[in-house]
Amino acid sequence: MSTDSESKLQLVRGHIRAFPDFPKKGIQFRDICPILKDAAALAAVIDLFEEHVRSNHQQVDLIIGLDARGFLFGPLLAQRLGIGFVLVRKKGKLPGATVSVAYDLEYGKAEAEIQVDAVAPGQKILLIDDLLATGGTLYAACELMRRQQADVLGCLVVIELKELNGSDRLKPHQVFSLVQY
Question: Residues of the chain with pLDDT > 70: what percent?
């Protein structure tokens, strides 16, 4: 990693706050709000993602952002790459015909969906979100892409909680994380 990239990574790390026992006892919540508040830190996140994508995925058609924090980073990255951005939303939030998949959360069940015409068969996509924990939401998004016959090149996250083994659940898809805890 170049010195410039390492300094950007340090800037990002320095803008992630930890809140113990939130949203419930025993959870160490990682807060990205300071990244969003600081233009240099936000630019560093997008710079690092762009560098990774340009080095490892020269043929990307779409960035797919997960509801809701993937919407914060995904459009900025897509714009930098000169490609489109597609939303994966919680069930019932998108107009028109949709495709959905149910998945388990740490605390219940949920459904994710995309519009039927959002991703064409064979399109090469990257998924993006702020955090990878157990991998449930990203796994569901990968399943949506499989149903649409898209080619999932990998997943991008700002933060990965390694002890929860979310990246194992996403195999064979590769996960690129900026910061790991």
Answer: 99
